Amino acid sequence: MHIVDTVNQSLRRVPTWTIYIVGAAWVVWMFYLAATDQMGPEPINALEREYGELGLKLIVLGLMVTPLRTWTGVNLLKFRRAIGVTAFFVVLAHFLVWAVLDVQSFGRMWTEVVKRPYVTVGMIAFVLMVPLALTSNNRSIRKLGANWRKLHKLTYPVAVLAVLHYIWLVKGFQIEPIVYALIVGGLLALRVKLRQRRAVKPGGLAVGE
Amino acid sequence: MAYRWTNDLTRADITPKSAYLNRRQILAGTVGLGAIGIAGSASAQDALEPNTLEEIRTYNNYYEFGVGKNDPAQNAHQLDTSNWTVKIDGLVDNPGDYALADLLSGLSVEDRLYRFRCVEAWSMVIPWNGIELADILNKVGVQSSAKYVAFETVVQPDNMIGVRNRVLDFPYVEGLRLDEAMHPLTIMATGIYDEPLANQNGAPMRLVVPWKYGFKSIKSIVRITLTDEEPPISWNKANRREYGFYSNVNPTVDHPRWSQATERRVGGGLFASRQDTLMFNGYPEVASLYEGMDLSEFF
After folding, report:
1. Tens of pLDDT along B163-175?
2. What does pTM read for this prediction?
3. Could you say which of A42, A116, A170 has the minimum Cβ distance to residue B59?
4. ipTM value of the model?
5. For residue A97, what is the nearest residue in chain B, using CA coordinates?
6. Looking at CA atoms only, how far is residue A23 from chain B in angstroms?
7. What is the tens place of the pLDDT at every residue in A6-31?
8. What is the full DSSP assignment across A101-141?
9. Which residue segment(s) compose the domain that A27 sits in?
């Protein structure tokens, strides 16, 4: 427990806005690399992929906050909103690169969304993230009350769709998307388990938001 | 039997090494544009400017060396191309294991500036050096019962990370109908820009079929088999619905993953616009091979 305490103490000293600053700086830095020929000879797909992968990583990280605290004691709760909102902005960047730089027209965007299942699920995941980002503030939490919690359960379908988007996108048998699928599947299973435990022991584990 | 195909691009059209090494300066206007010398090219060949050697060598699909576009450039140095032999078998008069030099000796190497279109909707223009496949096939003697040609890529598990990861069912195999294989546009490439093929480009010898999607142009070939039935091809085995045996570049037949109506030239930077994909990748002379065939059925 000693290490966990030290980790939590140092985490307490890190302000949450660090996440936004680092996230934004990273997005801008990647764009700079792509725009200055430092991301290979085909920077559009490379940038699209960088943003997409970080978006997925942040979604997964957001889902890990509660189980991480429950099972290891490491407390990232105060960063969860920042992680979620940053995930949304990175996925927005991913979407914009796709729309503006990659497919380059509304007509083609529509065709892609309708015709290609991996684009369809990616787009659904992105759309589901919009209300989550819009309600990630204290006022919305107060206003929505218990509904806020229900609404933010959308994080799970978002994560599942994002992984599906990745699995469908790659050709052949590739390891990376399968690793993400295993992690998200594992987190979902943990969440179910946690809920069962809570049902047996009411008040035993307070999981704050 | 060389030069059956009248190439309207000549050696003069190929960017000299001094120029392609500095293509960005040329584009910036600091070096005379005359060095590129694309004047006098025919309609579909207009403004065909080859990609730089660096682009051609750093943006590759060669799944034996990893699935990232830069992975082959990082990993393909492990490929062992020494003492390369090509097994030729099936319906041929002179089957056997040929040392590469013996197989190609006496055949003329030509320059072919071809468009290269990947099924993933990116494209390049590549100045190949190669031998017409027909010359090689005639040398080994194709029997009259042969209808197809099957090709196989080398498998060196110790040197190929993608083989160990089982990305596909290796060895990678491909095939052509005999008339496609004998078409003068079809070549066995041994070089690019007058330099031997880099490993990631399919050293020491790879197929180039410019009117088909790039995955048909199988790399690092160790076996050529003449057969009377359509041979299996790797991507079709992996996904029957998405990849057909013919896989001709065809903007009107969509792939489930990528629209084939447009493409993006590699090397255009972050703000490159898409361009229309041409039927048969701009090689209409092959259309007669498919007369009477429904190309949406035989995709």
Report:
1. 998 889 999 999 9
2. 0.85
3. A42
4. 0.83
5. B270
6. 21
7. 999 999 999 999 999 999 999 999 99
8. III-SHHHHHHHHHH-HHHHHHHHHHHHHHHHHHT-SHHHH
9. 2-200
